[in-house]
Amino acid sequence: MSAQENIMVSSLNAKQRSLIAIAAQTANGDLEGLKENMTLGLTSGLTINEIKEAIVHCYAYCGFPRSIRALQTFMSVLDERKAKGLNDPLGLEASPVSTNDNKYDRGKIVLEKLTGIQETGPKKGYAAFSPIIEVFLKEHLFADIFERDVLTFKDRELLTVSVIASIGEAEPMLSSHLNICMNVGLTPAQLQEFVRVIKPIVGKKKSKATQKVLNVVLDSKKKE
To answer: Taking the model in full, what pTM does it have?
Structure first.
């Protein structure tokens, strides 16, 4: 593989960069900036359904108010583009789940795929302290949301770390999801680029905090 090919493989593509920006702006609630990033996302090749799915995914991390406002903003973006004669591709719908397996068990399987770690033994930490939230995470976040195939696991993890970095003050969760990013195939170079993409959106303080967590994650990986 040539040096140029190596650079291309280790770089985020335009669609991934747009998803990161859309997630960060959704979490921040900067609707004017979000309109711009949504337009860039459509021109970079994201479909309507991919952007809708990205916003729905974000609600699990930044709440319904932010995501619903983002969806309303996206509706206005599409209306403006239609008025200009621009018809963006709708894209694929999520495939139906073809199993009657218990939803908790399905979510557990998805989480194990994401982390690469099998869940065994008694629950610890917040899961032991509040068992119901652990059930909600398995059944809703990792089954209902992550199982939807409109976006890949890579896409969803980039959205997740973007929202968490934008919110700030959630370093343990950010660390966990940066590790998941690498487990699902994102490279250190791509994660460094992720920080550069969010910096002008979230500001120096939060991007610096994100970089600090990423550095620890990458140093830990080198020691494995």
So the answer is: 0.93
